[in-house]
Amino acid sequence: MLPLLTSLLRHRHRHRHVILLRRQSKPYSSSSNVEPNLNLPIPLSSPTYFIWSSNTSLGKTLVSAGIAASFLLSSHQPLLRKRFLYLKPVQTGFPSDSDSRFVFSKISALSARQTLSRSILATDRVLKASCPSVVAALPGGEVGDGGGMLDFESSYRECRIPGEEDGEHSELMCETMFAWREAVSPHLAAGRENGMVEDSDLVGILRRRLNCGFSEEKMNAFCVVETAGGIASPGPSGTLQCDLYRPFRLPAILVGDGRLGGISGTISAYESLKLRGYDVVAVVIEDHGLENEVPLGSYLRQSVPVLVLPSIPQDLSDDLMEWFDAARGVFDSLVKTMVSAQSERIKRLHEMPKKAMDVFWWPFTQHSLVSVEDVTVIDSRCGENFAVFKAQNNGVMTQQFDACASWWTQGPDSTLQTELARDMGYAAARYGHVMFPENVYEPALECAELLLEGVGKGWASRTYFSDNGSTAIEIALKMAFRKFLYDHGGLSNSVNDNSAERSTQLMVLALTGSYHGDTLGAMEAQAPSSYTGFLQQPWYTGRGLFLSPPTVFLSNNTWNLSLPEGMHSNKLKDADITFSSRNEVFNTSRDKSNLAEIYSSYISFELARYPESKVIQGAGGMHLVDPLFQRVLVNVCRSKSIPIIFDEVFTGFWRLGTETATKLLSCVPDIACYGKLMTGGIIPLSVTLATESVFESFIGDSKLTALLHGHSYSAHALGCTAATKAIRWFKDPQTNKNLNSEGSSLKEMWDEELVHKLSSHPAVQRVVALGTIFALELRAEGSNAGYASIYARSLLKKLREEDDLYMRPLGNVLYLMCGPCTSTQICTQVLFKLYKRLDEFSKNQ
């Protein structure tokens, strides 16, 4: 790259001084010039807004300039020091067209026309520009032909407008972040000029500029970020700008269209913003004599003000000074509206924790242990991250990674989140809610077909929809009870007499440590635990035979098998209880091992202890139960005609790295339950799948033999629509880049080297990493161990408050959970944060 000649222009009142600087300019590298940490907090101490428009050339920049003039030149509080930050992330047509230069020059000119109490320093600069645009801006300058985006911060100009009072000046800071020469859509300009910019780089720089704009000094500040083109115009990478800027979710000012046809375009733009979760504070249109503001105000139900600007002069030689004077009242009203909305928002955010403490009864929460300071204020969600309000320094908004996947439900990235919102909006508009029994509608039918072709492929033929995981289990139990009685002749005395004495005692065969939900029937199918104790469930009896299963975990770089009492044998060798890799644990060649025989004998012995009981097996749980044990358990139960239930509410739809756990276990159930990730986690919906033989056990001449269980919102159109989108999205390699080449499983989500380092950490007892889950158990004894433990509280506080990882522990067990589409880079980052904090935690114990 040859030396680049650039100019630094300084304006002192009406005198121009030109200083020529020679510097070595380097092409912009999108991978190296952006901080990897994009979680810089955004200050909320001052109004910060996006300026959108329903189309290009509707006056966004005029509105930005008018807001700046009203704020900086207002007679209200004239002695107060002010700072106005104007940001233009994307500019095409540069240098002949520069919106930041326009705002800079107009505010400078307007300021010079009136007497100021405090002087104003106005500045304008461009951070990065394409080679062609730099050549056009600096005729005669020498620029290499290597392409890329160049540092162009030296294209700096400033103008100081004097005021009556001595002392510190107010500031107008105008910045263009990225500029291209051709006056076309940014994605075309970036491609044609070899000046591509990744979304993460643009978002990262914008976040830094917003942070730096207000954090340096305490003053009365205001910021607008002006977008390019219309709401859905592409950014440099091709991503629509309404999606590109969604992580910020700044409140919006929408510049609408006052021309003929503008009502429709303005409403469409408004709905596009609302669909993505933006708050539109005001709509501004130019007066074309058509009174578009009347139908717009009616559509918005007067909840969003519609302001009308005077008609803009078409004479290009007009300096617009008189127009700005005529529009001053409108802009003053707009600024007042923006400041008021900001004030109301901040007030509400500050009061929410206290109000929540007063009115909420949170589940799984001991309120006496929670202070107001412990309450997390979630403003919004974008993909895997919460936008969390923190009250420090008059308020900041920061991004927190949802490391517990909001109780194991979440899977969408930001793109899928928008897709789900759009499809569910369509379903709500088309169907609202319609009842399900004896009816059919497309979302429910399509969802059922996908379920049977996917997680139920090869075994299931029927879908029974319900509300959530616990209700799906209740339905599964009723199915299994009937199937068992049907197969073993237990219905002969009760078909015609529904009040017949129930002489048959039915039980479940389940695993200790498993959890199937909090409804009464689901709790009866669980072993005694903290959830089923007398304080929580006085009716609980535990109607089952509960087996303690062998579990597998990683410790000191080795996968180990932990056997419960009753399974130890002299026949076992080290090769039976240690494994070189996790894949070896799931290998079906173990079915012929000594351990398989031990498992079979143990299960058969336990079943023989209850010769008069009829047993139904329900499998599931949070532990990594040895897959060999589960296969043996299924085989033993099947040999005794005991129906098999798989509880996949948590594990299904790629949570464990495959679409269904049947792929990992190499066996299938008679009945299986799904929920959570089935809809992408965006709305509750569950389903119980069953074989045809289970279905046939309910067929008869009387309605009393049917399955009399239902929910008002069974198979609701919104949930079925979301499920259809999520199921397809997760298994499509075009939308889920984490799928392996065969599309049968996810690639390794958690960095293997880091996982093994954590397994050898002195503070760690054991580790499990599988699919989207990483879990570790801290070494702890006595009251520091178990579900009620608060041993990890200080560690969790650090991770949440300083590392922006939102985690909820299970006692002394910590876990991280990503989505099927989460980038492995993000997984590595959060895992490294945990490792770093573990070191600190260990040293302080």
Automatic annotation (TrEMBL):
Any GO BP annotation: biotin biosynthetic process
Species of the source: Cannabis sativa (Hemp)
MF annotations from Gene Ontology: adenosylmethionine-8-amino-7-oxononanoate transaminase activity; dethiobiotin synthase activity; pyridoxal phosphate binding
Protein name: Uncharacterized protein
PANTHER family recorded: ADENOSYLMETHIONINE-8-AMINO-7-OXONONANOATE AMINOTRANSFERASE (PTHR42684:SF3)
Cellular localisation: Mitochondrion
Annotated Pfam families: AAA_26, Aminotran_3
A GO cellular component annotation in the UniProt record: mitochondrion
Keyword tags: Aminotransferase, Pyridoxal phosphate, Transferase
